[in-house]
Amino acid sequence: MMKRWVHYKPPRWPALAMALLLAGAWLVIGLPSQAAPGQAGKGAGHGHARNIILIVGDGTSHSLLQAARLVAAGPSGRLAVDELPHTASVLTHSANSLVTDSAAAATAMATGVKTVNGAVGVDAGGKAVPTVLERAKAAGKAVGLVTTSYITDATPAAFAAHVTNRADTTAIAAQMLERGVDVILGGGENDFLPADQNGCYPQPGKRTDGRDLMAEARSQGYTTICRADELDELAGRPVKKVLGLFADGDLFPALYQEVGAAAGDDGGKSGGDVPSLATMTARAIEVLARNPKGFFLLVEEEGTDELAHARDVAGAVRAARGLDAAVEVALRFARDRRDTLVIVVGDHETGGLAIQGTGNGYSSDPQAPCPAGAEGPFRTPDGQAFCLSQATAAHTGQPVPIAAYGPGAARVTGVLDNTDVARIMLAAMGLNRKP
Ligand SMILES: [Zn+2]
Asked: Could you say which of 28, 116, 145, 320 has the lowest number of CB atoms within 10 Å?
């Protein structure tokens, strides 16, 4: 499937001609104070975004995407994410550190407010701040959260919960239902079940308040599921609210680690016993798109971060391909319409990942070994090879990539702060004034 992108060349000329026409019109009617949404080129669309699909690659850097690009499509190939025409760099520092964690980074992107590391949906003083997801819900849109992590992990949590400590996952689970999040797909079943109660997976629940959130969700009209085939069976069924939890903890180990690598080796398209990110994204879009006012969907790939922490760089590259497979699903939905903004962004870099040559470091010879400390060689489809090394097992302060397609995408340009991501999404939905 990846080869489909190998020879893709964006059709620049029609877009440029349109831009010149619009520029001419502006000379007559006066220059706009800023680029109007949807008037700057291919994939820009017109007017407001009815739907937003925000895809976060946790820990995803240019280096990791390039490693995935090389493995999937070779040095001249392209990923699905390369189809998004508007790109920029994002600065990621938090309110109290030059190196952010995922909680502060996701809070910045969800609310437009910087906070301290570890905080979720609250400002640096601990006060709850409204999120893009909540604003979309208040505007009548359907909202969803999808991740290969446990669903109460920091990134999805920051869009639908307000807690000062990201470790407070049982409180986050309860808040996700209170927010009325329509589609919830990921891991973390035991955050939704009371202590001593088992669900579909071996570990008993973690809740000490005695609440069975799965049962509560069913009484609120959710379809609750826990197996990949149950998610497949949702296709075409007219459900509006889904709570699907497919493991006690994370999903990404089964998708991308060596034991389950058969799934990752097909570019993250399928997930075996747990659903792939691409499959969850497709089902979530199908359910959310039934809302006539549109939807906001957050999709997160977590293996790109956690496997880099674990120094499993091969696993992290598989996870980046899983991320890209989800991007392909989102683009397939958005491409035929003029109303959907797709944004793909890293929340921070993890590992200080470096792409190195084989042998003396300047070779692509697959027979040569990797330099000391580097993993590989990793092969490209055209028979070349490269190596990967990491500077650290922690996050780094590097800027991260962002790319966008659809109405409002033209605002993704230059050097952005991570708080700008929230403003770009609110402006795209026409929700950028205080409620
Ligand atoms: Zn991390």
From this structure: 28
pLDDT mean over 280-289: 98
Amino acid at 149: S
Please state the rounded mean pLDDT for residues 144-150: 98
Query: Chain centroid to CA 258: how far?
Result: 23
Q: Grade residue 432 by pLDDT with cuts at 50, 70 and 90.
A: confident
Q: How far apart are CA 382 and CA 401, in angstroms?
A: 26
The mean pLDDT of the chain is: 89
Span from the CA of 29 to the centroid of ligand 1 (angstroms)? 49
347 alpha carbon – ligand 1 mean position (Å)? 9
- Look at the domain 43-54+76-353+390-429 and name its fold: Alkaline Phosphatase, subunit A (3.40.720)
Q: How confident is the model at residue 270 (pLDDT cuts 50, 70, 90)?
A: low
Cα angle 38-39-44, degrees, rounded to a multiple of 5: 40
C-alpha pair distances (Å), 53 with each of 9, 143, 288, 405, 429 = 24, 10, 11, 10, 12
Q: Of 76, 53, 56, 77, which is closest to residue 1 (Cα–Cα)?
A: 77
Domain boundaries, the chain: 43-54+76-353+390-429
Q: How far is the CA of 309 from the centre of ligand 1 (A)?
A: 7
Give yes or no for a contact between 316 and 304, defined as CB atoms under 8 angstroms apart: yes
Sheet containing 385-389, strands listed edge to edge, beginning at the edge strand earlier in sequence: 354-356, 385-389, 375-379
Q: What percent of the chain has pLDDT over 70?
A: 86
26: pLDDT strictly greater than 50: no
